[in-house]
Specification:
homodimer; two-stranded antiparallel sheet; 12 strands; alpha/beta; Peroxisomal Thiolase, Chain A, domain 1; ten-stranded mixed sheet; 36% helix; 19% strand
Chain lengths: 386, 386
């Protein structure tokens, strides 16, 4: 089995791209990631494309083949993978598996989404496809609605309040200011958060990650092919993928995602590290409450303490422990859903190279956590400075 | 790197299933494949789900997670893969890669499609998503339309005629009579073929594979976990995946699919066999002309001779060479598009176990060839009797 490295990454600007298509964005990120990796185009022999909404919006299938053709990659293996908002993490993992199995010399993993065209109502409806359509979808449960339930359950069980959720938002929005590719680059105040439009009680507008366009990409290869990497390759210490219940009726709790817990446990074991060894994590804050749950599920703080630790600033760069979402996370960077998992990897790789805009000093071990749907899928990737 | 084996396979009946959903069919095939493999449910640690049209018809995302939950598989890694009509071949390949990389002990690969509900016009439109939507789709080119062009190009270049295409249809329909899961189990005459409704010149109704419902599955594992396999495990000698042009404007020829040629070349090399070593092949006869092209692309007969060889009976079980589509192929078995690649594997495994309904005597090496779109993706899998 070959050991896998991330030799190059890239992300487009996240935000609104009215003049570009989903495919344009994917090609743009792919070009930049190849360039960053230092590999020749002819060395790429697999393409994984993560996307969730493209079929519903544009109707184009076999997009990985369209993208590979646009990139001039010849008859490479092209695979479209879907795991809702966790699609890009799954794309990365299959690049890693291809290299590990010796089936690819170098895999180009791309995640992309173009969500701003259809409008909020249409997108909200399409996003319900990440939940169990025959029950939750049929009952009209939206994704903000689901995470509103999570926030209420968390408040009832652990006593989290508006000020804890506001801390998540303010921290991530503050971090995003330094990220040139972030959708939002302005700080927000507690007043702005509290006066935002109510979306799904108790979640208000700024508790919700935005509808965004964007793409991100990574080139995964073996050690022998990392020599041209612009700022150095990063070692994949673990890349684990799991699943969990899709519909609420199958969930034992609303305050933890079993897919995240299982993926984290396997990743820590596989990488032979623990939560205390992780210097920086990009985790899936699709809503403010999701960051709180994830910090618990990933083992950084016990459930019931995570919201307090965040509000105390223990997960920011001035704190003593792990730094959470220095890129701004989904709340600040934006959340083109199929792209997010690879945008996380782009940030973690920059942190381990020491080239991040919001650099965590001396970061040696980083994690990316990508969640699909209401915990239907999860990936946890642990990367180490080479 | 672990060597991969197919320990169990299954297929539902192909045809019309008005009382079942896509998920019902997938679960049914998955249950049967696990049972056939002799593995415990707890030994399955990855699920690959191949499907093309489900998002457009039912809108359910993360289906692999829904199916895994229904099968009681716990927090296994679940991945939805899409490569148009080649989706199931891609699902199989990723089961093989997972086992080869040591990431899975046993992978359940499922392909499924439920196509009969929306009606022919709606399905024909959804199927155009396998072509380049921005050009061919926008111009109104349907898939029968594309393969009509292929048939005309082949006739102009190699002189193939109605009687050659009719031979493909009559042979595959005759083979399907013995297949208990086939959609069509009646022979057809040259007169019936010639008097069929014109679909896309020169293709008539019986030149086209039918709109079908169905699912197929396979369990891929390592040697150590094959001991309970009901009729014996089969060795994966090669499992290669490629891509090719999606839109007509990028195709250098209409009488060959570069993705098939490349996948076959790599598979022969990887398995250390040649076309003459293959006893039986299930290949992607989505239209009668496609079988002719594939027989050439896979190297069984030179292009220009394939249609003559088929018409002479050289690819039937009474012929001296490779036996093509003993299951009835897509024309006879039916073509629930996302299921086809694994239905092919089910037949090839039965042939190598010596348990096929239409058994090729002494078959030792078998091939499955699954094509996506107009050659946008291809997989070629070579299996060997253990």
């Amino acid at each position: 089995m070959n050991h896998a490295f991330v030799a190059g990454t890239a992300t487009t600007a996240f935000g609104r791209h009215p003049d570009k298509t989903l495919i344009d964005l994917a090609v743009e990120a792919g070009e930049m990631a190849i360039s960053d990796s230092g590999l020749e185009r002819s060395e790429i022999d697999a393409v994984y494309f993560g996307n969730f909404l493209g079929r519903g919006i544009d109707g184009q299938g076999v997009i990985a083949s369209v993208v590979a053709r646009r990139l001039g990659l010849g008859n490479v293996a092209t695979t479209n993978v879907e795991g809702a908002c966790g699609s890009a993490g799954i794309a990365l993992r299959h690049g890693v598996l291809s290299v590990a199995a010796g089936a690819a010399t170098a895999a180009l993993c791309i995640g992309a989404e173009h969500m701003t065209r259809p409008g909020t109502e249409a997108i909200t409806k399409l996003l319900t496809e990440a939940g169990e359509m025959s029950t939750d979808g049929a009952a009209g449960l939206t994704f903000p609605g689901f995470f509103g339930l999570v926030a209420n359950a968390h408040a009832a069980r652990y006593g989290s309040r508006r000020e804890h959720l506001a801390a998540v938002i303010m921290q991530n929005r503050a971090s995003a200011i330094t990220n040139p590719n972030a959708m939002f680059r302005e700080a927000v105040s507690a007043d702005q958060i509290a006066s935002g439009k109510l979306i799904a009680d108790p979640l208000r507008l700024l508790d919700c990650s935005p509808i965004s366009d964007g793409a991100a990409a990574a080139v995964v290869t073996d050690l022998a092919h990392t020599t041209g990497s612009r700022d150095g390759a990063v070692r994949v210490l673990a890349c684990e993928q799991t699943s969990g219940p899709v519909g609420i009726r199958h969930m034992e709790t609303l305050t933890s995602f079993p897919a995240t817990v299982a993926a984290a446990q396997r990743a820590y074991k596989s990488a032979s590290v623990g939560p205390r060894d992780v210097d920086v994590v990009e985790l899936h804050d699709c809503f403010s409450i999701t960051e709180v749950v994830n910090v618990g599920d990933l083992g950084f703080f016990p459930h019931g303490e995570a919201h307090l630790a965040i509000a105390e600033g223990l997960t920011t760069s001035s704190g003593p422990g792990v730094v959470v979402n220095p890129s701004g996370g989904l709340l600040g960077r934006g959340h083109p859903v199929g792209a997010t998992g690879l945008a996380q990897v782009h940030e973690v790789v920059a942190q381990l190279r020491g080239t991040a805009a919001n650099q965590v000093p001396g970061a040696r071990v980083g994690m990316a956590h990508n969640l699909g749907g209401a915990g239907a899928t999860a990936t946890v990737t642990i990367l180490g400075a080479a």
